[in-house]
Amino acid sequence: MVKQTGKGRYGEVWMGKLHGEKVAVKVFFTTEEASWLRETEIYQTVLLMHENILGFIVADIKCTGSLTELYLITDYHEHGSLYDYLQSTPLDPKAMLNLAYSSARGLCHLHTEIFGTQVKPAIAHRDLKSKNILVKKDGTCCIADLSLAVKWFSDKNGVDVPPETLVGTKRYMPPEVLDKSLNRNHFQSYLMADMYSFGLILWEVARRCVSEGIVEEYQLPYHDLVPTDPSCKDMWEIVCSKKLRPSLPSRWSTDECLRQMEKLITECWVHNPASRLTALRVKKTLAQMSESRAITI
């Protein structure tokens, strides 16, 4: 273990060395054994490996006398989370599309059931936010923190969901989670809940893209509408009762790339889950935007 790099509700994150290589070590509190087990199980899912999903190395339990430590060891990315990266890094359109497309690609892989000699289940993340997406050296992203994820195999009807109802980070909770109307037995509901949160992440990214020399400072979604640590009631009032969404900078309308991003964002966070774009549709749109940008340049 070299140095602590973060802290969360489940425990701590460290940068460590394994066989001389840098790795990230998530150390869970002993009270969080269920989260450790669940995340380990999700990471060991058949065919989950993908360049836009955080690379899993090993999970381990270390006992020293009366102390038990639960480890989850993964690839280390020195840029840290997308949240950290956006604070200090203004983006050009190419960098913005890189971050957005690679994140959508990871989410699409997670959401997709893959059939073959082995079957990868569809997986919903349930806690998507900029702090749970990491930025790699090449400016692409990978999705991390799968401790709240749920799996679904189409041949087994039913969703394997832990009993708690409100999960995730309140600021990123979709309306159907806040007003408790989400259909817990319908797997598609969880995928569409992820898409609302993903729309907020795209908004965070797009604000940091420079157009005509202008760029907004980094802010969390709803920064101007709710307290720093909002309650479910605060979020319900803004998102469900007033049906408000983060404001869209007026400069976006004069930039072709940001105008397309705005359309994508608003189609992800619409109130009705059935009307939201799927991860595959977002991925394809962002790929087209990147291609047309390359052609114009």
TrEMBL record:
Pfam family, one: PK_Tyr_Ser-Thr
EC number: 2.7.11.30
Domain of life from the UniProt record: Eukaryota
Membrane topology: Single-pass type I membrane protein
Top EC category: transferase
Any Gene Ontology CC annotation: plasma membrane
UniProt main location, coarse: membrane
Family listed: Belongs to the protein kinase superfamily. TKL Ser/Thr protein kinase family. TGFB receptor subfamily.
Record-given protein name: receptor protein serine/threonine kinase
Lineage: Eukaryota, Metazoa, Chordata, Craniata, Vertebrata
